[in-house]
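Case study.
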Amino acid sequence: MTTPQDTSATPTVTAADVADAARLVSFGLQAKLLPARDTEYTELVRRYREDPPFARLADAVATGLGLVVLEVSPRAGMALAGAEDSVFAVKMGDYSRRAASETTDRFLHGLAHLAVAAMAFPRPEDLADDGYLGRITVNGVDAFVRQACRRLEERAEAAGDNTDPTSDAPGLEAAWRVWARRSTTGATKDARRLAGSTIGITGKAVAFLVDSGFLQKASDDAGGTYRTTARYQLQVRELAAGAAMSELLELGVVPVSDGTATLLPADHSEELVADAGLPFHSL
Amino acid sequence: MTVIAAQPAEPELRPAVAARPAPGPAADEGLARRLKALACTAPLHDLDSRKVNLAGEYGGYAMAEVGLAAIDLVTLHMDFDTGADREAVLSRLLPRVAAQHPERPAAEHQRVVRWVLESLINVGSVDRGFRAVYGTFGPDGAYVRRDYDFKLIEEVPGPDGGVYLRTTDEAVNVLVGALDTDVTSAQIAAEVKLEVLIRRGRLADAQLAAEQARYRTVQYAETLRRALEATRRNVRAVDWMQTVPDLIDEALEHIADRYRHENAILTNIRRARDEAEGADHKRQAAELVDIVKDCIRRHTQLQTRLLEAGPLFRAEQDRQAFAAPSARSGIDLYGQLLAPVLELPVERAIRPTDAFFGRGTGLRSPAVVRLTDLVDLLLTPPVEREHLGVELPDPDLIATPDDSRFSEVQLEAALQLLDLPADAPRRLSGLLADARKQDPELPYLVALLAVHAASPPVGTAYRQGEERLLFAVDDGTQLRDPEFGGADLIVGSALLDAAGMAADRR
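After joint prediction, the assembly is written out as follows.
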């Protein structure tokens, strides 16, 4: 691993160093692998943190492959994310064939991912706190979005708005309506989840996140109960939330936060949704 | 998907200039409401017009009638927290279909029932719902066509992970209730539902009250569960100064109140059941007893949970109070992202969700194919997908030597001997003598079983819901037997209340 030149005053990069750096990146690409499970990985993570030239080398290898290094630590390993247009990035068309052609399905799949994150990190400080472990259930995420949709529906009704979309402009339909009118679940011939239902869509999102090393299954309760991993928190905090937020800002929607949570304990006079998991609702 | 294009009333009579129709916007709104109500009936009419498309002779079935009956059944069978069981609804619907055409085969009746239910759910469509188009005049006088989406029967997840059926508010209001109602009002739906139930004599007043109280109990339990869950995440998210203590007090009061009432009801119904003359009344009263018993059980359950709430709060407070506070502040995913996105029109909302998806789903290492692998891959015949999975290899079984002292036949003989009637226990000495007559080895087995019965596995029997249990008691009498010594046990069978135990276990 080390050659005599390394110990000299001006360290030069050897082929072995590059191989080690690339090895570290390849460990990082195996999203479910944690340093604690592999001694070589642990060693490379330690070297990255203690040897700045090696760290720069590993960063360069990652950048060259079209990857962004989010963090290198014993808890998350080398947390990598695909840069835009990188070969490692997930395309919606590969994710769901239907989503590639149907706008509403594409939206629902994207929204499911957003809702999973919102449910996993209900408060701003949960996203910021490195030690926080979120817990979500598939049925809970669906119930949570439906509850939010119902509040918007009630608000529109109170304001006397007709929320039925016009037939010739389906794109103007309010986003909450699209989720609300999709069926929650459905019986299928082979006892699997109905793929197009909102629970099916959420289930797919969750299963995909498990494969990305972002969630870990805890039990089968309530459609599947999952725990978040450090990598998921990093990904949402450092990349996803910001990307979605800048799109929102471009659309002219400026959500302001004073750093406190907007999800609050529910008013007890109201009926709670079964399996929502949290007695929370928005202001 | 059913599309009903709503036509504006007498379009050619209106002046060519797009002026407001004479009656004004309120009438327009009323018209829209009635059009929506009318649209809800369309799927039923549609059943009769589509039945000709079914392969076979289905013209003789009155599909709309079956459809309406299905909606009634689902409405009657769904309880407050879950929906109606699909198979139960199907089986109850069968007699009506069979009565319409008794000479046809049962398989055809089955098919009709399933077809009607699936049509009412609208299984073929993505949303599993219906859409009708209606027109209104906007504030500027322009005529706008709008989509009205509705469902009649929807599928909901049950607590056991299964799929249950519920009728929607629209279906209840329009098809179970009357036509001229506000079709989306849940309040009216609940009232109509109850009214229908009472009118059909399905529920007596006491039962209704008890069921409502049970619902309230479930609600309390649910609220409490949620509060405790939130406490586990963040003590501060739940108001433990006022709200939760109030909730606990209220719930305890509710339990005390209901417990008194239901015990009174139970006494009364039991009397009614015993004194009732008609078989029908007897059955109804017996059902009521079960419901009330279930209510009492749920109250007890809630009370246990209430008692656990305080200690949990204190433990969580200790745990969380000593956690170091976070210095950074993150993005409020719900308030700053999810909530604003939901309010946008879908064509705009898709931009932030796409961005979130693109950056939030993680990596996928692309599969790279080598040409040689590709050739192999393409030439490999496709693996037939077996429904049952791959074939299991036949395990190599080695016959173990039979070293048990007693044979199966002997065990059976012994058990038969010990299969005593509940009201006639016997002495061990007699049993041993009987056994000896059959087989010289048998007394050993009988003695062994009797000794085991001296400490009967009550817990196991309780868990497995067994109906009878063998027991043995020593009353001090000496056993006089050529082969065995000790106490001459009294061996008997105890009958267990299997149904009661099952209820307790739940």
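Observations recorded in class. The longest strand of chain B covers residues 130-137. Chain B touches chain A through 82 residues (CB under 8 Å). We will return to this complex in the next lecture.
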